């Protein structure tokens, strides 16, 4: 149960982290990691340009919202808020239909260009649950940027192409993005253009993966394959059932010595799900390491948090 008496800690943590962010997008409070009693269903993201976006994931008692609003109004009078150039505070109700968003302070832009690790991404605000960039994958994108030089990259379930942007910035020779949502790929194209990338190095395939292996293989073999699927996508993907179909194809897709970054973001699926299935279905791919998650995404149980595992084709 979310507790109004816990909110001073919420604003204390945010105050400490905002100073470190500068104008870069960052999670500044992560209650969903269950490290803060009474705040398990609330998060806060600093988007830069003076915008703080709070999200509530489960309906709380009316007293909680009253206290949250009152303490937001007090917070925006603080020296920290003035120091970081704060302008806008919104609350997104992720548990309500349409992910209703209300603006408590200032004016919320419908779109905003945010900066992460010096790269720019366009986000939509107040329209849908996911704004276009998953902040817990910050270190994953950095890893791809650091390991992409001269490589041919396949980005499966590309969404808005954050991995692709990082790869091209890191010197990738070619990136192929596949996602069945053409609107997400269009945003991915915009993200590349925002970073002045050479678009001849980037391809966008708006297809359902399991009907498109021929198109995917045509651009291979790849030196790096990134698999970052949704846990569940009605009618097209169920993680626990369909991940295996991808792993079986890896020997055909990945060049010898190539890398695979396999991701799972379901709290109910353990890292062993990936290591065991890889050993069974693609034994030539050896587990190298699990990437760290950003420290701001603290979690009482690391197995419940985002899992990003690196494998190498031996």
From TrEMBL:
Which molecular-function annotations from GO does this UniProt entry contain? Answer: methyltransferase activity
Which Pfam family would be a valid example here?
Answer: Methyltrans_SAM
GO BP term, example: rRNA processing
Query: Which part of the chain is the S-adenosylmethionine-dependent methyltransferase domain?
Result: 26-312
Q: Which UniProt keywords apply?
A: Methyltransferase, rRNA processing, S-adenosyl-L-methionine, Transferase
Recorded hits in InterPro entries, A to Z, give:
SAM-dep_methyl-trfase (IPR019614), SAM-dependent_MTases_sf (IPR029063)
**Per its UniProt entry, which superkingdom is the organism in?**
Bacteria
- What name goes with this protein? 23S rRNA (Cytosine1962-C5)-methyltransferase
Question: Source species, please?
Answer: Enterovibrio nigricans DSM 22720
